[in-house]
Amino acid sequence: MKARQCGNCGKNTMTLQKVHGPFSWKDFMSVVLLEPIDLLQCSNCGEIGYRPKDTETIDRSIEATIRALSGKLVETIIEREECSQTILAQRIGITPEYLSGIKSRTRTPGFQTFNMLKILAEEPSAFEISDPTFDIDDIEVPVESYREVLKKLA
Ligand SMILES: [Zn+2]
User: Where are the domains of the chain?
Assistant: First the structure.
């Protein structure tokens, strides 16, 4: 296929490239595809040229990426915490059916749920805190005396 003119920089340097993104999609600001897709991209300025048929391909690829990442996050948390899917669903505030769908990559979580999974997967302490019976006073933290704080500020 011959190169096309770029709508941004005007050079005839738009050709099919393997593109990973990042793309913004629904509430997701920046999704980098696990599998690149063929899109027209300008080798001069980086502009992506969308053809009508690309929209569907991009949508499908982004959704597949989010599903794959989310399913992996669910597996990571369940393995580490040795908890049931029901417990994890409660902690996130979603139904066990929805969580099961995310785990099996058949449902796509919204950004909030995805973010919650990401935090719980990356921060083991976040899982502990997400327990509704968790009491902040149970954490042993060094307590600095008010006097010491004032001295430092002086
Ligand atoms: Zn260009």
Answer: 14-131
How many angstroms does the Cα of residue 60 sit away from the middle of ligand 1?
26
Q: Return the closest-CA partner of residue 95 out of 79, 113, 76, 75.
A: 113
- Cα 45 to middle of ligand 1, angstroms: 4
pLDDT in tens, 105-128: 999 999 999 999 999 999 988 888
d(CA 130, CA 134): 7
**How far, in Å, is the centroid of ligand 1 from the Cα of 30?**
21
- For the domain made up of 14-131, the CATH class stated in words is mainly alpha
Q: What is the residue whose two structure tokens read 């600095």? A: 144
In 3-state terms, what secondary structure has residue 51? Answer: coil
Q: pTM score, two decimals?
A: 0.80
Sheet holding 14-19, edge to edge: 14-19, 37-42, 48-49
What mean pLDDT comes out for the span 86-95? 95
